[in-house]
Structure formats: structure tokens, C-alpha cells
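FAQ: What does a multi-protein file look like?

Like this. Sequence, then C-alpha cells, then the next protein.
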Amino acid sequence: MLDDRSWALLRRLTRFLDQFKICFGHRAQVASLTQYVHGLLGDSARKSMQAMLTRVTEPVSYQAFQHFITHAPWRVGPVWRRLLAVLPERRGVLVLDDTGFPKQGTHSVGVSRQYSGTLGKIANCQVAVTAALWTGARAWLLGAELYLPESWLTPERRQQARIPGSVRFQEKWRLALTLIRRARRAGLQIDLVVADAGYGDGLPFRTALARQRLPYMLGVAGNLALWVGPPTVGSRRYTRGVTAASVGAVQAAHWAAQQPRRAWRRVSWRNRSHRPWAAQFMAVRITPVGLWRHHQRFAEEWLLCQRPLGATTATAHDRYFVSNLPATTSLAALVRAAHQRWAIEQQYQELKTELGLDHFEGRSYPGWQHHVVITAIAYAFLQQERMRPRPGPRLTLPQLCAIVQEIFTGLLFISRPRYMHWMRQAEIRFHQLRL
């Protein structure tokens, strides 16, 4: 039997989902939303629609359940806007990244052989650009956009995957800017934007953030061409054939390799309650050569260099970041800013392990979008539950998921008494076999 606390949690879930009723056309869709969230929060190891449907109370037909995700004409835009409007925490670090969804076949929308940071290699997968708000204690998924290679935007494939004609090819950094604009329109306060070199290497992306007056800490490749301090060129006019070296510039990795050992400082940082990490760091004010090549205003930034402890020469594990944080920012503060991205890595693991973000087996573009936004709703509910005051240490998301799954399992047995009868028969049979 469920106790009072279990029923209270179910009532809170109902009230939470009631906030999204306005985004759906009729009551059948609202009922399907509730059932889908129940399935995501349930104890099914595989969050495919068929597996989830067997574990929800008062299930509809599989056709109706599938129709809600793959064919129902509700739009994800209003749902994302509603989700961002009801988030209880409104300020933090915006973490941008892309995640891969490995696939076996070639029919899932957007799938191709492409690099996946999740797998660390080129593989057959889908890739989504995501944005999360990291508050220092929790992460909230703010949006996800499926990256569509140009090969998926042919008339035949558009029809196959039901990709709207309004969807055009966009580089990942452009998709990231879309997610940033959505977050700002929702009134979220962004203290810092962090992302890896896949975004930081693009001058247009850094320029767009600067124009929006958004502070950033972005990974870059070691071949970033720069001037240490002010530029050494007297004119910003572009000349064909001019190289970075010919105008007194140097690559980030080459400059770092030339610095004496005493220039590096050991700095440690900690991500919440996790064990502290440490590495060698060095920071210097620089001017990227790309600004000159693209006729843009010169602006000094930080170059932050990281090297493993004990290393005396350049290594394959050296990392580089650029940031437009103020010139007065301390080295320790730069290091803390550079290592905020761990939150999204943890979030991906939780979303995939606990809620099946990458378990969607449909092939259509609307179906993928529907699955992802409802997964974000379920995740937001769990994070909101973690904010509730409780005695003892704060629950981790897997611990909370285990509690919720236990409640839903109890609810399933209440709604289907024959399950209990089968369990008792199995128990009797087990004891007979032991005898």
C-alpha cells in the first residue's frame, strides 16, 4: 500500500503537469502526456513506447500512445516556453553542448556517420545541440535542437521523416544561439555561457555572444592565432596571402609551450561535493587575429591554458579557453568558470540512464521533438522534487528516481490486482521448488 507521502508526491506530479494543459489541443492529449511522463518515471529499463505502456496505470491502446508522440499535431515550441516559464530557479550558468544518440540503422531522422562527443569518435548516430541552466546545485534542461546534416534536407527525406519545409540547414553554433535567445526571452538570467571548442573555435559564435553582452568561457583549439596583449599590426586592412606569423601573431599552443615552468600555477577546483581536482594553469590577455581578418573591432580577451600536474612540456591533454570576463578576473575565478561544463555531462548521464532520453525508437522529426520535450518536463519535475526540504543529505537524482519508481510500481499493483495474484503464485512456486 502507498503511504501518505507517496500520495502527496503523486498529487504534486499532477499539479506540475496541469501547468502544461494549455499547450495541448484536447483532453486526450493531456491524458497521454500524463501517461508518457509516468512511463518515463517508471521502472521500465527501456523507455521505448511499448515497454513504457506495459508499466503505466490505466493504459490506452498502443496506437493511441504512439500517435500522441509521432503524429499528434501539437507543437513543441509552446511546451518549451511553458517549461521555461515555470522553472523555479531563474539564474545560473548556461551550458551548451551536443550529445550523440547511437543508432544501428539509417532511417532515424538526422542519423548519419558523424562525430559524437558522447562516443568520442565518428559513428552512426543522431546529434542534438542542448542548453542547460546550471545553478550550482542543479541543472535544468532548457532546450534541445536536432542537428540535421544537409543530406537529410532533400525532398525525399523530408517527406520520409516529416521534416517541415521551414526547417533549414543550420550549423550547431547557430542552433546554440537559438537556444540562448529562447532562454533570454523566458526571462532567465545568464551569468556565463560555457561550451567546448566545437563552439568556441567559431569567431561568429563568440562575436554573437559579445554583441549580446553575454560573458563566456569557451574551449578553443591550440591552433588559435592570437597576439599576446594589443595587436602588433598598424592597419586592420585585410591583405591576401598574409599569415598569422607575418603579422607577429602566434598559435595558442606554441605560445604556451614557450613559457617557462614558473609561469604555470597549480590551481584546484571542486564541483559541488565531488573530490577536488587540480592542474597547472596560466592566463594572459590576448587579441585574436580573427578579429583583424574579419574587419572587426579589436577586443582583448583572456586565454586560459591548462596542463596536467607534473608536466613540464606540452602534452596531448593540454586545454585552452578564451573568455571575455573582465581583465580584473583572478586566475582561480577563470579556472572555476572553465570547469562548469561538468554539469551537462552529469545531466546527459542522468537523462539517458534514468529517463531514456536516447531511447526513442521513432523515425520522424516531430516524434523526436515530442519525446525530448516531455523528457525535459519529467526531468524538471524530479529536480523540483530534489529542492524540497528533507531530513538528512540531499537526494541524488538516481535515489529520487528509485523512490518514484517504487511508488509507481505500487500504484501499478493497486490498479491491476491480478499482478499481485501472479506474484503470490510465483512465490509459492518458488518455495515449492526449494523444497
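And here is the next protein:
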Amino acid sequence: MSTGVKIVLGLLVLGLVGGAVLCGGGYLWLENNKDGLVAMGEEQIVAGEAFGSTTEQIGCIDEGLAKQDTCGDFDPMCEAGNGIWLKACLGVASESPGLCDGVPSKSDIIDSATWAVGTCGNMGRPQDQPCGRLLQQVQEHCHGPL
């Protein structure tokens, strides 16, 4: 067997072992943290509904973006919590006329990206990827899940 083939096979085995370790570690992390994650989600739903009952849907978006600003540079748990909060808030808030005008479905990938970048830019948040990710909740509110 040539040296090149041995290297490729070695890298393939290393990749498979690494992938198995990552999957196993992710599973263990979820198993150890699932109760806390469920509790966090439930807290965000209650808080989102409480806030939403006092405002219009646009107020939910504004508050959701303010909450997003409290997340660190890369904090997926914080962003996920804010998404849950915003979804709950939008579900009970008073309707904001025109909220869904021009909002594309999440299945329209190019239109979604263009809309999110433009909307975040219009809100004074150009190049703000967490803003775009949070706005996916608005798309889901307007069009339902994929």
C-alpha cells in the first residue's frame, strides 16, 4: 500500500473517531443538561407571554433585540432563549399592522437573507448576524414553521 493511501486511510479513521467522540460528547451533554434546558425554555415562554400581553408585536421585536444585545459574542444558548422568548411574545402581543408585509417564508433562502440583512440594517444593525437569526422568529410567526 502506498504512503498516500495510508495517509488518506489514517485521516479517514481519525475523522470517524473524532466524529464519534463529538457525537457521544454532545449526547452526554444533552442528557446531563436536558432538565435545565427545558426549565430555561419554559421560563422564556412565561416571560415572553407576560411581556407580549402588554405590548404590540413590534414592541416584542424591539425588546427581543435589546435582550439579544446582552448575549456574548457567541452564546447560542442565550440566542436560543431569546428566540423562544420572542416567539412566545409575538404569539400573544397585540397585532402590529403590516408586520408581515414583505416578510418572506423561511423556505425562500435568498429572499430571507436579503430581507433579514435589510431589516436589521434599517433598524441600525447592519452586519448584525444575531439580529438576522432572531428575525427568523418573525418569519415563523408570519408564515409558520417550515
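Q: Is there any per-entry metadata?
A: Some entries carry free-text notes. For the entry above: Residues 20-143 form one domain.
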